[in-house]
Amino acid sequence: MRTRFTEIFGVEHPIVQGGMMWVGRAELVAAVAEAGALGFITALTQPTPEDLVREIERTRELTDKPFGVNLTILPSIDPPPYAEYRQAIIDSGVKIVETAGFNPADHLPHFKDAGIKVIHKCTSVRHAVKAERIGVDAVSIDGFECAGHPGEDDVPGLILIPAATSKLSIPVIASGGIADSRGLVAALALGADGVNMGTRFMCTVESPVAHEVKEQIVRNTELDTKLIFRTLRNTARVATNAVSEEVVEIESRGAEFGDIAHLVAGARGRKVFEDGELDAGIWTAGQSQGLIHDIPTVGELVDRMVAEAEAIITGRLNDIAGADRAVRA
C-alpha cells in the first residue's frame, strides 16, 4: 500500500504510531518500525534531554528501520527546556519529528537545517493550512473521536479529513477513531495518505503500559470516555473512571483549574500506566476503544490491518464497483 506518505517518509505501510506521553518508548517504537510502520518516541516522557538521547540509542539497538521523535509544545508554568530537547533530537541524527501543541515555527528552521522531515499534529483545517504555509512536510489531523486534545471545534473525522485534504497539497495523516483496516481504507478514501493510531497501539503486547490498562481498553466500548476541561476551553478525551467522572462533576458546577489540578496531575496518570491502578488518575483513551477486542503484537496488528485493508479494496469495494458497472451496462 504505497502512498505519498510512505514514499516521502521511507516506510513500508501508511500507518503511524504517534507520540503518547508515558507510552512512546523504545520497545513499542522499535516494534512499530520493525512492522514497517512509523513509530514515535515521546520526547517529554524522558526526564531530561540526555535521557532522550539514551532512549533514541536504545531504540536503534532494537531496529535499523526509520522511526521518529514527538516533541509536544504546551503552555506551562515551568516549561521544559524545549530547545535542549530539540538539540538532542538533532544531535542524535533522527530524521523524522512529529510536533504537536503550539505552532512549531520557532523549531522548524532548526529541524529543516538538520535535514529533518516534520509532521505537525493539528485539530482543525485552519491550523493545518497554516502548518503547510510555514513549511511542515505533512500534517496529522485529529478528529473529535481522538484520545487526548481534540481541539474545541468538535469536528469528527468523516468531515475533518476530507475538509483538510481538499485544502492541502502536502500528505495528510488521518487520526482519531481509527483502530483497524476499515479505518485505514476509509481514511484513504477520504483523501488521506495514511493513518495515525494511539489507543490501538497502546493495546499491544509491546506497549509499555500495564496489562490491566490493556485489558480495560478491551472491555471498554466507544461510550467509555469522558471529555474533561471543557469549561476551561482545553478539552481532553480520557478514559472513563472514578477520577474523570469526578472532574466532569466538579466542572459542571463551575470550576477553575486549581479546583481540579490535584485530580489531573500527570504523576497520577503515569501511575495508571505503570502500576495498573485504573482509578489512580486520568488516562487518555479514544472512542476507538469500541473497536479494540484483543491485545496482539504490533507485528500481528499491522500485518492484519494491511491484509484486511487490501481484501476490502480488492474484494468488497471491487465487487460493489463491478455490480454498478453491470447495472449500467
UniProtKB/TrEMBL annotation:
Keywords: Flavoprotein, FMN, Oxidoreductase. Pfam families: NMO (PF03060). CDD domains: NPD_like (cd04730). It comes from the Bacteria. The keyword Transport does not apply. GO terms for molecular function: nitronate monooxygenase activity. PANTHER family: 2-NITROPROPANE DIOXYGENASE (PTHR32332), 2-NITROPROPANE DIOXYGENASE-LIKE PROTEIN (PTHR32332:SF20). This is Oxidoreductase. It comes from Rhodococcus pyridinivorans AK37.
